[in-house]
Amino acid sequence: MSSKQKILSAIRHHHLADAPLPSLDQAWITFTDVKQQFASVLESVGGRAVQVLDVALLKADLAANSAWSEAKKTVSMIDGISGNVDLDQLANPHATEDIDFAILPGEFAVSENGAVWVTDSVVKFRAIYFIAQHLALVVRADQVLENMHEAYRRLSFDSVRFGSFISGPSKTADIEQALVIGAHGPRSMTVYLLG
Amino acid sequence: MNHAANASAFTQDDARTHWHDQALWFVRTKRDRMANSLPEWETLRETAAAIKAHTISRLADLLEQFEANAMRLGATVHWASTPAEHNDIVLGILQKHGVKHLVKSKSMLTEECHLNPFLERHGIEVVDTDLGEWIVQLRNEAPSHIVLPAIHIKREEVGELFHRKIGTPAGLSEPKPLVEAARIELRNKFLRAEAGITGINFAIAETGGFVVCTNEGNADLGTSLPPVHIACMGIEKLIPRAADLGVFLRLLARSATGQPITTYSSHFHGPRPGGELHIVLLDNGRSDILGSDDFRRSLNCIRCGACMNTCPVFRRSGGHSYETTVPGPIGSILAPSRDAQQFHSLPYACSLCGSCTDVCPVKIDLHHQLLTWRKEIAVRGLVPLSKRIGLGLASFVMRRPRLFDFAGAVARRIFPLLPRFLIYNPLNPWGKKRELPLFPKQSFRELYRQRKLK
User: Roughly how many angstroms between the first and final C-alpha of chain B, as a whole number?
Assistant: First the structure.
């Protein structure tokens, strides 16, 4: 008997009574101002949310950010903002290792936990979200959801091979519970709520 | 193994015991703040427990559904009954690809299988990339906590370790530069690796995908650079629907570390373009636990570690005192399920205060199960002789009212006259840190009789 059959028959051997699957339609938390809520939670986890009306204002904020202005290698997948490295020209994900700043689109934001949903359908290498020294995500201001249940009502995994909720910069507290920003991934995370 | 003996060794350093206790209590208070900020917290817990109960009740069907969907997405699914089989599968994949350097992100399952030493014996370099896990790996230790692997280590010790192993300046103990040094060191490991291993927090039956949660981003770097991704999971890690993640991701990080969500919650559906994805499903006794009405609910566990952070015994005895991959209250239920003979002392590492049950995000009745285990251990004749003699004697006397009366009367007269060394000695472990109360002049029965006479 294969291990698969062995495991499945060991489970089936116990004949458990069917327990019903609960409904996920409950009175989940909502907020009076989702953008404000998103910004304050993101700040509490070490990130920064900026509301900008248009790309010109976004550019102005970027210009004032030393992580951007001092970056040697930048990647942008945002219309109207140019980076100096074309991700599509790189041969393999390892070539993204020295990217200093990446500004990329986020699909939507979740106000209850400061997370932004990103997928690899818009980038050649998913590594870019995690390997860049600094990360900025641009989310349309009308795409800020209340909570995770709303997020999953929206998500479908029919075509998305990789997606991630990112909430703040990479961090660790593994040395005596002291929070340190910039563990393996980005040292800063800015989310622009555009429009 | 004997938990009490291990705990006693840990508590020799009083200051350190307090420090360990406070570090974990700090995490517990962060968890409380998060739980209290959500009005639907109890609804979330109940929903999560119900989803898990449903999953367990139909586990075989859901595993088959998961496998079919994962294969449709291009992943290869492997089944392992035992840790040895699991390790052989992983080794086979690595050898097929000629892998010499492997990066691993946190996976308690591979700890359970002792995968690292196995692969190292076969000439493969394994690097644990979670900072806490890397620290304990460099020290040749096992993690002492499933979420906070290095919670038992002080910053000065990390500084000394890094000085020896990676050449940081002597005397450095500030967390920030230490983390920076580890970042540089481990980045090279990520770039050099030919394969990455991750655990799985949740596998989704209806889509064939799975979710891995980290704060550092190590699972993501470890799977987005090397072309081969091996993901290892226990068969109980399944959930039926993607939408169920809404419930579990809301509970997991809030319960674990008091964060609203982990920094990265990554959803993998099939291999990345040009890459390979292998999923290894491990049983290792889980299907036996599933058959037990008493202990089935322990399979609900999502490995958040909240029961450890709140446990008064864990906080003061340290994770290593349990000698198990998963320590603390949940570990004290899981370990005897696997080997009651070896781990019979763990269900006694508990004051039955019930705090673990209160904080558990998936409503496992932890302290009830621990009590049930004590009964089970007595039934199986695994209670140590020292306890059996004492309890047997007590039972003998208590079943004989006259003898009980007589023994009480004698004890009340004799004990106050005995020299200390006859009462407080190695034969009386109860008296190690405790004093007997003053003996009353009369027993309750005597007082009652006198009262009736009046």
Answer: 57
